[in-house]
What does this fold into?
Amino acid sequence: MSRTLLLLRPQPGNDESADRARALGMEVAQLPLFEIVPVPAESLPEGPFDALLVTSANGARFGSEALARFAGLPVFAVGKATAQAIRALGPYQVETGGGTAATTMPAIVAAGHRRLLHICGEETRPFDPLGLTIARHVVYRSDARDMRPYAKALATLPPSVIAVHSPRAGRRLNALIPPPGRNHVLLAISEAAAEACGKGWRRIHVAPTPDDPALLRLASTLCMVAS
It folds into this structure.
């Protein structure tokens, strides 16, 4: 018996995850809970900076102006997908971190940097700056989509594997599916995302590393498990 993988990730990341999942042989259903949109343009911080921190692929997509403005500085990307999105924009000096801002900061400190420009979305997980001076430059936000047209489909969803890519998605899933309808296996990208989903689910698993490829490799196993 196989289970469908339900992807809640916003676009365009949802399509990217779906392509990876289908390449691994999974049946995929796509239901983005949020829409990623640019925020109104704001002035770039003046600096000076000695490095950039980009904590999502959306930061790269919507932060191209900031990246171009400081093109001579090293760019620290939290993971492979973010690094790829930055490299697609031009020949930047990109260093790939440990999957989150918190696990990337030690490498930035070790490289001797002290003043960072953080290109990010409106919602970011807090992390220890390790004594560095960090200026945030917000370039996008995640708007909740109207899920009322999908309420019946969610309530009658057959047992599935549901991929949760963020704590915010977990909180919304927790609100959308009440406990009587939680006969699903959840696969969260982090412990924080798992905790946000609430209780009462059939099972909850956390990806071994906080990135989409690791999450989907585990999903390919869970989708083939009958219980």
